[in-house]
Amino acid sequence: MLKVSTAPHIYSQTNTRTIMRDVIIALAPAGLVAIILFGLNALVTIATAVTGCVFFEYATCRYWLKTRPSTSDLSAVVTGILLAYNLPCNMPIWMILIGCFVAIIIAKAAFGGIGKNVFNPALAGRVFLFISFPVQMTTWINPNWKDFLNVDVTTSATTLGILKHAEPETSFFELADKLPSYTDMFVGNIGGSMGEISALALLLGLFWMLYRKVISWHIPFYYIGTFALLNTIFWFVAGKATCEPLTQLLSGGLFLGAFFMATDYTTSPMSKNGKIVFAIGCGVLTFVIRQYGSYPEGVSFAILIMNAFVPLIDKAFHPRIFGTGRK
Amino acid sequence: MTSLILFNVLILSMIAVIAAIVLYFTAKKFQVENNPLVDEIAAMLPQANCGACGSAGCQNFAEKCAAATADDFAGLYCPVGGQKVMSKIAERLGYKAQEKERTCAVLHCNGTCQNAPDKVQYIGLKSCRLASRVFVGNTGCPNGCLRMGDCVRNCPFGAIELNKVTGLPQVNPDKCTSCGACVRICPRGLFEIRPMGKNGVRVYVACNNTQKGAQARKNCKAACIGCMKCSKICPDVKVENNLSHIPTTISAEEFGEQLAANCPTGAIIFTGKKNEQN
Amino acid sequence: MNKIKTFKIGGIHPNKYKISSDIKISDAGLPETVIIPVRQHIGAPAKVLVQKGDKVKVGTLLADLDGVVSADVHSSVSGEVLKIEDQEVSNGYFEKMITIRVEGDEWEENIDRTPDIIRDIEATPEEIVQIIRASGIVGMGGAGFPTPIKVEIPEGKKADCVILNGIECEPYLTADDRLMQEYAEQIVIGARILNKALGIQKAVIAVDENKPAAIEALQKVTREYIGVNVQVCATKYPQGAEKQLIEAVTGREVPPGCLPIDVNCVVQNVGTAFAIYEAVQKHKPLFERIVTVSGDGVKHPQNFRVRVGTPASYLIDKVGKNGDIGKIIFGGPMMGLSGINIDAPVTKTTSGILLLRTENVVVPEVSPCIRCGTCVEVCPQGLEPFAITNFVRNGEYQEAKKIHVLDCIECGCCAYSCPARIPLLDYCKLAKYEIRKKK
Predict the structure, then answer these.
(1) Interface predicted TM-score of the whole assembly (ipTM), two decimals
(2) Is C335 on the interface with A (CB under 8 A)?
(3) What does DSSP say about strands C325-330 and C337-339: parallel, antiparallel, or unpaired?
(4) Which of A129, A150, A305, B27 has the fewest CB atoms within 10 Å, i.e. is most exposed?
């Protein structure tokens, strides 16, 4: 039987599934680093989070939203991985499952499922856990690649934790002694959430996504650019009791957030200018929370707050219509 | 301690007073003068805002009613609310309600999946209005139903649904309010608002094809071929452009069964029998 | 070679599939009967002048233009008029057509059939417009807008540049590519004729980068014609769209709702320029054109010189079907119309006939929008197809109009690249129809 349709009659090779697959590939290096450095615990956490998210996604689509289960588009897998990356590696399994529940059912399905959520599901899950279980969520295991089975576990504070709780009189050099070296921070040999420790692995992921055109460069660039600029200014003005901008950049979840969470399609603006405004907002908020807030880390809150502004930003910024005044 | 409580109570009361004053003045400033009569009439209306009466929504219709003289009022009719609502409004206004027969929408096509099987498969956006501009339709009939259900989606009362067996939209006469949304939306103009008839007995031509007989039959077994048999039975039935039209003035009880039985293709539909069974 | 230019906003890079670009134009020959529609252009159908039983020659006027926006229709074969009645066109609707049984190949005497290239343009500007009108020339890129209207500049406007559109950005199609390779000089003379008719000196032939042979052929010729230049444009879809082409070549943007003449440009397809050359220099009305028959359902893709009115099935038989055919497309795969009638005739605007195999016909599986913003990114008009879609789904056509849906050029970039396979273009088209209907 002949088929009839309107134009176009050919389509690009990209679909939701291939996009999500590319994101998973981009997330793989960071996961690998986490498993090497944190051992079995990391593997269990990632597996639990992914399974939990996929299960909740399937269940909600099937029994609540009554739509064709969208698990095959891999978006729930991405949410699961991102949620796991935002957790310390020794979380109890039932807490991880609560995180999955919040991420998929409260942050995503309650708004109507894929494409309709206002807040990034993984971040919502993380923040919920962070507020509910502050002790477990801030117990940071020291990375130790020799100890795969997690026999001998030691804990320490994160870079940002050290900074936040430093005495106001501490001089810059004293502080610098307590902080890990740049190499350690770049490769990932520091304590922290599983996915955020290795800047190198996250950068590899970013390049993969840029190469595959999954994301545009605007959000990561303006987010990190704004943050770096504000820190540099602050460093020059305030002088001591803070650290140089590079440490700020490499520590905490900034790269993970800027590359993978702020660029989430559904919860970021559509137009180019909107994306820039969104990213600058994220950068400013992250800076403010890190410097003045009571929490050491501000990336998750910054992105979630800016998520709420996305509908407004989308209303305010539109692409230039062809043939109307050039700016 | 006492002073603290007192202080709190004071502050809260002050806020309440200020808010009350602000609210009072804004309410005064933005108040819209409403004719209470209009509101009263609007409350009687179905509030479907379908526009079937020719006004822009029920509020507008209520305004027209309120302003109408007895003569003007005769020209106003809410097809959704029907006789019941109109007589209620008339009573309120002290006018006489207009007598109108109940009507409902009928589909002038019998191109079911069986009568007019799909020749090609349309894989674009399921919208009759778009598809009819792209091509002739899956069945090949240039005047017939496209079976994609724009009417179903646009019916404000859920009175139309696509029959799973025939593929055609089916009007539920009990729910149909003759608002005319389907008449306006159908790109092929297949719907017509016709009188319900006594006990739901109606007779009409379920075809809109103006092609010559042989051509029309090629695509659809139930096409009107313009054979004139119906006009021989009842001379009021007019055949124009290879298409028969049964005017509403013809008595369905008298001619309906005969017309339907004698149509060689089954394009004439008589609803009488079915309703007797019910 | 001067700088490669392109338009700035949006655009996509579909696979090209130009499998027939090295295949020389061959003559399709004469079918037994031809069916010539009286409306092969935008506007009013032409008035039929012949009657059943009349003998006609190649080039005989069959139908006369009716009103300003209309075009003459000439016979493409010699023979006898069999019938004049409504017949099925490619999309299944019925339109008035003239059926002619082919008998021999006798041409009208005044048509110059020699292969000589006539370089001197003797006709005056008024005569040129007259000849273009009498030859039934319409835009051959696909839309079929009658050419005389474009050549006569309205009062108060002026043109300073003729742009010949040699950009065939649609995948598969190679008709214009072959035409430029084989008839480069005729096209350049066509540009000159247009220059003379408009009283200007400058003409630019825009060709996209992936046609090196055509660029070379044209550049060789344009050396001898001062004022005619070849402009190489990037291979990007929809580079061949009128507004995008003007922006690429001149940097001027046609404002919404305006025509190219509002930015002092006249754009013609190279096929149209060739037809103008033949009409003015060789007295040959428009009754044949180059048609690419291609697609993965075709055994031997070809570029045919086809008489208007030749049934598509005749051409398909010549190239041979390959496998089970799932879709027939008249035009290119991005903007072409899918047909249901294989016997539909080739018209003045048919640039290609594509056959796609059943297994390669994509049945889009629509999934929810993930707000990725690709549609916004690729739209060459700077629209937001996702927002338009949302409005149309709710029936809010006036809201869609406010976000400029009427500026949509229906290029299909959004629907092509949507990862959720939402028929964004269908929604835009629906909005345009509904808004225009309400007016």
Answers:
(1) 0.87
(2) yes
(3) antiparallel
(4) B27
